[in-house]
Amino acid sequence: MEDYSFLEKFIRENYVAVCAVAERFVDRDTAQDIAQNVLFKFWENREKYAEVESLDDFLFIMVRNEAISYLRSRKTESERHEVWEGEREEERDVFHALVEEETNQLLLHAISLLPEQTAHVIRLVLSGYSNKEIALLVNVSINTVKTLKYGGIRKLREYFESRKF
After folding, report:
1. Where are the domains of the chain?
2. Which residue of 68, 80, 129, 137 could cross-link 124, Cys pair, CB 3.0 to 4.6 Å?
């Protein structure tokens, strides 16, 4: 079994400095994770790094590279999320447009089933005309417009309530 006292000493001597360097790039919790990863990677491959002239410089480079890799992965993940959200929003928009179009078609069909003058008044109401404007356009009294309008709305409501959508 390997003697872990050297590893423990190595960590104690370097952890705070490595953490401080990592915090220049990322938040504290992430910096602690990066510091642990760098120290263990270095320790596991210490035979390969026997020729390193400056341990501090080498650890700094390892921390910087690890932090940059982390930031790149976060950016990529964020971009993927934005694309996914954009696709979902686009799908919702298409879905809503389809539902709106189908609803409009159903409403137009239901209006076409109304008596001619009532249908004409309802179309004008849906176009944004006021009762007074409709009365002038159709050449009837405002009370007749109100009667046709509310009668048409009642018949449309009955039509849609009787349908099972």
Report:
1. 5-83, 113-162
2. 129
pLDDT digits (tens, 9 = 90+) for 98-123: 788 888 888 889 999 999 999 999 99
How many CA atoms, within 13 angstroms, populate the side-chain half-sphere of residue 56? Answer: 5
CATH, domain range 5-83:
1.10.1740.10
Q: Which residues of 56-91 are buried (b: 16+ CB within 10 A; e: fewer)?
A: eeebbebbbebbeebeeeeeeeeeeeeeeeeeeeee
* 50 phi and psi angles, rounded to 5 deg: -60, -30
Task: Count Cβ atoms below 10 Å from residue 22 Cβ, excluding itself.
Answer: 27
Say how far apart CA 17 and CA 59 lie, in whole Å: 9
